[in-house]
């Protein structure tokens, strides 16, 4: 279950009950469990998704570089290693280099000319960049929720009072 499946009441109901006489200590423990069990797992999952998208962007950028720089120069057959499945590779020679196959997602590959492929790859990079930005925003939201809960827990435990008492107030208008 992720953070977005919870609301304020379900957090308290979902967590295991601990026998204690102090209701504040019970709430502190439940929120700590919520942060550790739910929010941190959600954050890890979102960051893994974002990293996978950044890997895809890097692959498409390599393809874009090949299309723009290498292909116009080379008009000869290309020797390459081809994945034939399950990470097994074999040598292949491409004699007709007028077309290129581009993976457009869901395991589909489409044959394009190099000019068409350049346009498609640019659009795919833009699409993946927007997706990565959304995941970055989502991770920032989760991090802020973790920080907010941790600050509230510190205040409940009395750690905030010691921190505030050590800070001297300085009037910015008094020179």
Describe this structure in words.
60% of the residues lie in helices and 16% in strands. The chain has helices spanning 8-14, 23-70, 114-156, 159-165, and strands spanning 78-85, 88-94, 99-105, 108-113. The chain has a two-stranded antiparallel ribbon. Strands 3-4 form a two-stranded antiparallel sheet. Helix 2 runs antiparallel to helix 3. The model is unreliable at 7-18 and 171-175 (pLDDT under 50).
Write the layout of secondary structure elements.
Blueprint: H1 8-14, H2 23-70, E1 78-85, E2 88-94, E3 99-105, E4 108-113, H3 114-156, H4 159-165
Antiparallel strand pairs: 1-2, 3-4
Helix pairs in contact: 2-3
Number of strand segments: 4
Structural class by sheet pairing and helices: alpha+beta
Strand order, largest beta sheet = 1-2
Low-confidence segments, given as residue ranges, are 7-18, 171-175
Radius of gyration (Å): 27 Å
The percentage of residues in β strands lies in 15-25%
The ordered string of helix (H) and strand (E) elements is HHEEEEHH
Shape: elongated
Overall pLDDT metric: 80
